[in-house]
Amino acid sequence: MSSDLVVVGAGIVGASVAYHAARAGAVVTLVEAGQPGAGVTADSFAWIGSSGVRTGPAAALREAATDEYHRLEAELPGLPVNWSGSLSWGTTDAAPEAGPGQEIVDAATAAKLEPALRQPPEWAVWAPGDGAIDPVGVIERLVAGAREHGARVCPDSGVTAIRRDAAGRVVGVETATGPLSGGTVVLAAGAATAALGAPLGVRIPVDPSPATLFRFSAPADLVRTVVNNRDFDLRQVAPDRLVAAADSPERTLAAVRSTFHGAGDVELLSSRVGVRPMPADGEPIVGPVAGVPGLYVAVLHAAVTLAPAVGRLVARELLDGAPEPLLAGCRLDRF
């Protein structure tokens, strides 16, 4: 792999790769079809946490998620992260269980954590180390950080093809505004990643996965943590705004009003469907592509949670030339 990189996609994964690679000394061009952060990341609920039992190839990445965000906060002062903790209850019929970094709390404690609850649950799972981000704000800081380290950023330049030389090695990309050269191309284009790999004979098993995000008006301090229950994932993003990840706007609005005191005037402001990338087995696909020298893939579903760790490890893998053990279970060749 070359340290002259073209990163395709300025969502949170591509922005993280570009920032970490530029900071490590790579020559980086970050290219995006629209504006950085204007894609699916903008419609993410953006809950981050390392708590709970983690299994699978990306378990270690998930366990490091909050530490990686704390590291990124130190590197990029002003990173918009709110370490509110999360409170979950009633998501299953089984008795609550606490995983690493979690504790079971009673109704009195739940009421202290969320004073507006009409009927605090008898038991809930409290994860004090959890938080949430402003995803667009984080992307803006990552892109600004990449620029500060010499990266070139090309918005409104949709990639139409991967360029290769006569020997089959990647030499850059074709875009709507002209060609861009680079010895390594990192595909971090979310749900569009599969379509970019297909003309090269590369099958990247990623499908679009729609997710709905609702925005509501709200009184100040109605919700203080990240709330997770059967009806919604809910958090306050501004003194007068809530966001919720759920299925139905009508049912979600009714559930918010019935769950919290003072929520009678909460109103739906908007509803947007984001098309998230979903690998076939739900786990990240990260690593070089066998048979196409110079091509590297970084596509994952839990992008907001894992982007700082993945960006740092991808940059180190590309620049140092040594496989990263934490990415060993995430390779494309597992399919």
UniProtKB/TrEMBL annotation:
Domain of life: Bacteria
UniProt KW keywords: Oxidoreductase
Gene3D superfamilies, alphabetized: D-Amino Acid Oxidase, subunit A, domain 2 (3.30.9.10), FAD/NAD(P)-binding domain (3.50.50.60)
Name listed for the protein in its UniProt record: FAD-binding oxidoreductase
PANTHER family associated with the record: GLYCINE OXIDASE (PTHR13847:SF289), SARCOSINE DEHYDROGENASE-RELATED (PTHR13847)
Residue span, FAD dependent oxidoreductase domain: 4-316
Lineage: Bacteria, Bacillati, Actinomycetota, Actinomycetes, Kitasatosporales
Pfam family, one: DAO
Keyword RNA-binding included in the entry's annotation: no
Keyword Oxidoreductase listed: yes
InterPro entries: FAD-dep_OxRdtase, FAD/NAD-bd_sf
